[in-house]
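Tokenised fold entry reproduced for absentees:

. . .
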Amino acid sequence: MFETAHGTYTQRKLELLSKGQVKVSARLELKAACKKVLSATAKCFLAGHERGEGGEVRVSGKVVTRVIFLDEFDAFNSEEHTDSFTERLGFKGEAMSINPAAVVLETTVGENAGTSVEVDSVIDLIIVGLVEKGVKFVSGVTGQAETRTEKMRISTFERALSEKFSAVEMLELDKNCAGVLGVDCNASVRDVFAEDGRVTIKGTVSANVLTIKSGETATMHNAAHEFDFTKTIHVQGLSAEDTVFGGVVVAGVAVKADNKVKPELNVEVDLAFNGFVLSAREVEYVADAFSGENALNLATVSVEHTNALPQVNLVVDIEGNMTMPANSPFIARILTSSGARITGANIGCADGKVTVEGVVSATVVYECEEKQIHTHEASVAFSTFVRVDGINNNFNVQASVGVVSCYIKARRGKELMVDAKLAVLVSATETHVRELTAEIAVGEAKQRDDSAIVIVMPEAGETLWDIAKRISMPVADIVKQNPNCAQSITVGEKIFIYRQQVINF
């Protein structure tokens, strides 16, 4: 009686596939004897990942551990050590692409004696991926059946983007700089936007340089530097109407000092952009069908449509006070702060804004009134909100928070003031379920109406297609006999249908 043609739509959605932790232990053999460890910090850089059989992913990376210490001559010193790690994570199902990420949760100092220091770091690993599902639908019908087709725009995650690039800057140091103990770099995104065939990322690299200042008494000093970067990624088939999500992470830092004319530091930062593209595709499908001979049964299949809001990127200022434990010595001056990080981040959404809460933590090195040097882990809670136009509780909100800079000042005796800049990235998506016709099956035979004339009166909300389906007559034949119906039909008007009669002589 008729034949159906099928199309296939591939829908993809973003899912958290797996998460786990890995502990990396480093043993630093120092060039100078260690009298006291002042701080120990770690940075994790992912090197790559490989997919194995059975839903397994092998993630490899490196942890760069830095120890700042007082040597046997009471001079400030520092050493770095790099350790590699490989961790296997499993997940269920199939994923089109995967994107691992790593965050250092904590770093602790173990035994230290002479020229040996042991440091343990706990790394949090997560794997996000695109999970795809093929949907088969009826795209057309040929034969003795009347059909009504519709077009639908469905947005889905099209692909993952991953690109590595470098940003290089020459940093001018203070003229009293006597040495560099370490450089910590963070990256924040200001804007990500799609154009035809390319994605442009604009952002800022923040470099915190920990130096030794010469003078009557050598001391440590934090120097903050910022420089911008722009990266263009060429993506075949990308449209300006597509939405791009993503952020930039620091994948490595290389430092080279130049003291020929003035103290300068050449900093090369390896950056990695990881993101996803949300694209809209127009699908034409058979929404309804009928036949004059038999009833037709239509089965539907659900597809997901993802509505996305533009990604919001901003830098917020956080300020808070904390009081040190009662048995702590009184602070004479802060020497430095290092290892700033975010822990315990929570995300909420209400009233057109996204609330981000968490804790900023950093290691403080200070001198007490007795001229002794101490360390303390300073932490202060923060809460900030990001205005996102059009957002509501139905949206799935994802946010990441990173430390751009963190300065800690001494206030009254044992009170510290934490002044930090945080890079906040917020994306929001909303999922709607839509129905497409999956199959058309032939049902029972219809009873024939042999009336020579049929008078039809449209009911409220009824369309010309509804009438055609009700009397099993093609729309074109109805319009041919009632040209006024081509534009519109009115409730209660009479539509005359003359059926063809076979007359035998």
Summary: Residues 2-292+304-433 form one domain. Residues 362 and 378 are 5 Å apart (CA to CA). The first helix runs from residue 464 to 471.
